[in-house]
Amino acid sequence: MQFPAYRPRRTRMNPTIRSLVRETTLSPSDLIYPLFVKPGSGARDEVPSMPGVYQLSPDGLPAEIDRLKKLGIHAVILFGLPTSKDERGSEAYDDHGIVQEAIRAIKSHAPDYYVITDVCLCEYTSHGHCGLIDADGYVLNDPTLELLAAEAVSHARAGADMVAPSDMMDGRVAAIRTALDAAGFENTPIMAYSAKYSSGYYGPFRDAADSAPAFGDRSQYQMDAANTDEALRETALDIAEGADIVMVKPALAFMDVIRRVKDEFGYPTCAYNVSGEYAMVKAAAERGWIDERRVVLETLTGFKRAGADMIITYHAPDCARWLKEEAHRAVGR
Ligand code: PBG
Ligand code: ZN
After folding, report:
1. Tens-of-pLDDT digits for all 333 residues of the chain?
2. How many angstroms does the Cα of residue 329 sit away from the middle of ligand 1?
3. Ligand nearest to the CA of 249
4. DSSP state of 125
5. How many C-beta neighbours within 10 Å does residue 174 have?
6. Which atom of ligand 1 is nearest to the CA of 201?
7. How far out from the chain centre does Cα 206 lie?
8. Staple partner for 221: which of 3, 51, 168, 319, CB 3.0–4.6 Å?
9. Whose CA is closest to 293, among 323, 266, 268, 271?
10. Whose CA is nearest to atom 5 of ligand 1?
């Protein structure tokens, strides 16, 4: 194939031929929307560093789920802001904790709506780390596993469809799988944050979830951004321990990792388009420096192209709306 016999521009002549040869598609059904839930009633507090993202109280969830359903978004992942925090993150595994109440609020309104829960302790611990700490502030691995497993079971008992451990303790997928099975939840899948990097891109999330560590950082448990072979080892471990879906997080700076994980394992793969990635787009768009719609659709398509089957993104509602508009335009053409 050589010029002039082959002219790649021929298949770019108009929208119809471009859509016929398109290799990657993005659909609202690929998207998972994160929700931040807090106690109380009537709460709808915008996160300053994440315009358009709100902390909601459970009573606001039915309307929010109706809005998402209309947009074609069929799954959410829940993050909780507890009433109180302590050293052991007790509210995380309390059957009447905020996430458990939020699940029930959604399920009593929309029993079929797919609810995923983030399983971690950092939102619930007074020190903001993802596990138990010792007197030196070291995050203890093995004693933390039991609490994560209890949290996952408590979420499942409240009605969660899937649990997603984000703590990065070694062995947590196995601990959670064993506990879920023992409690009769053998059909509850685990989406493991397998290649979760220690990242500057989580800044706005820690405002939204009030989960910044009180001292130090997470580099003793989250991965070093320089590594990709290690991401494959982490993912292999999670799969061996029973993960049903694996995740790469953040997404934008780690598209090579998404591709490697997908190629190596062929497992359902999730990309987490994190808070800092969202905030950058929002800030630049607000200044009129970028076209938000184009940039978001291009980026999310990029995650799919890199190998992601699904994307957790704060852009989900906007993206779904834009995709719907484009589909309309294509039909009306
Ligand atoms: C909890 C958790 C974090 C995110 C998801 N789950 C924060 C962290 O690890 O500090 C980040 C999500 C985002 O930035 O959008 N461990
Ligand atoms: Zn955490």
Report:
1. 899 999 999 999 999 999 999 999 999 999 999 999 999 999 999 999 999 999 999 999 999 999 999 999 999 999 999 999 999 999 999 999 999 999 999 999 999 999 999 999 999 999 999 999 999 999 999 999 999 999 999 999 999 999 999 999 999 999 999 999 999 999 999 999 999 999 999 999 999 999 999 999 999 999 999 999 999 999 999 999 999 999 999 999 999 999 999 999 999 999 999 999 999 999 999 999 999 999 999 999 999 999 999 999 999 999 999 999 988 877 655
2. 36
3. 1
4. B
5. 18
6. 14
7. 14
8. 168
9. 323
10. 166
Instruction: Write down how long the chain is.
Output: 333
Check if the beta carbon of residue 28 is closer than 8 Å to that of residue 22.
Answer: no
**Which residues lie below 8 Å from residue 196, measured CB to CB, with a gap of 6+?**
166, 168, 222, 223, 247, 249
Q: Is the CB of 193 under 6 A from ligand 1?
A: no
Q: Are 281 and 292 in contact (CB under 8 A)?
A: yes
For residue 97, give the 3-state DSSP assignment. coil
For residue 228, the SS3 value is coil
Out of 166, 196, 198, mutate this one to test ligand 1's pocket (max ligand atoms within 8 Å of CB): namely: 166
> Does the C-beta of 118 come closer than 6 Å to ligand 1?
yes
Q: Whose CA is nearest to atom 14 of ligand 1?
A: 202
Q: What is d(CA 159, CA 329) in angstroms, rounded to the nearest whole number?
A: 39
Identify the structural domains of the chain with CATH numbers, from first to last: 24-332 (3.20.20.70)
Characterize the bridge pairing of strands 75-80 and 50-56: unpaired
pTM given for the model: 0.98
Active site residues: 196, 249
Q: Is the CB of 130 under 6 A from ligand 1?
A: yes
Measured from the Cα of 203, ligand 1's closest atom is 14
CA of 125 to the centre of ligand 2 (A): 9
